[in-house]
């Protein structure tokens, strides 16, 4: 079963995205990490991609959740984005590597004028 939410690309709607994620990924012991990943993708689309609309789909596949996050901002492959060099401390640039690390799988494609990031998380089990 897939649930979908579309909101304006504005930080005022981050809480609504979080509530949606927590409601539809409630069985996962990783729900806090899932929420963190969605928040990171949304924040990047708003602040850097000049998106106007955000859309999140959560597909409950029983043993895992498949999330598809789409935005209509500038093209940006979040999967191939460079991580910060080791040992270099600066503000920013840590969110996407974190999302890659905490998700079971992460893919990107540009389709129909949208950035589409697909994330997979375990539905149960431990963090």
Automatic annotation (TrEMBL):
<dbReference type="GO" id="GO:0004674">
    <property type="term" value="F:protein serine/threonine kinase activity"/>
</dbReference>
<feature type="domain" description="Histidine kinase/HSP90-like ATPase">
    <location>
        <begin position="16"/>
        <end position="120"/>
    </location>
</feature>
<dbReference type="Pfam" id="PF13581">
    <property type="entry name" value="HATPase_c_2"/>
</dbReference>
<keyword id="KW-0418">Kinase</keyword>
<keyword id="KW-0723">Serine/threonine-protein kinase</keyword>
<protein>
    <submittedName>
        <fullName>Anti-sigma regulatory factor (Ser/Thr protein kinase)</fullName>
    </submittedName>
</protein>
<dbReference type="InterPro" id="IPR050267">
    <property type="entry name" value="Anti-sigma-factor_SerPK"/>
</dbReference>
<dbReference type="InterPro" id="IPR003594">
    <property type="entry name" value="HATPase_dom"/>
</dbReference>
<dbReference type="InterPro" id="IPR036890">
    <property type="entry name" value="HATPase_C_sf"/>
</dbReference>
<keyword id="KW-0808">Transferase</keyword>
């Amino acid at each position: 079963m897939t649930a979908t939410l579309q909101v304006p690309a504005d930080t005022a709607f981050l809480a609504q995205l979080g509530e949606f994620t927590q409601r539809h990924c409630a069985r996962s012991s990783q729900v806090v990490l899932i929420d963190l990943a969605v928040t990171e993708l949304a924040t990047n689309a708003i602040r850097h991609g000049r998106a106007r609309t955000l859309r999140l789909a959560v597909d409950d596949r029983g043993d895992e959740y498949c999330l598809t996050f789409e935005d209509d901002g500038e093209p940006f492959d979040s999967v191939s984005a460079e991580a910060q060099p080791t040992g270099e401390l600066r503000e920013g640039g840590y969110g996407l590597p974190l999302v890659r690390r905490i998700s079971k799988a992460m893919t990107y494609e540009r389709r129909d004028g949208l950035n589409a990031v697909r994330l997979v998380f375990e539905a149960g089990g431990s963090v």
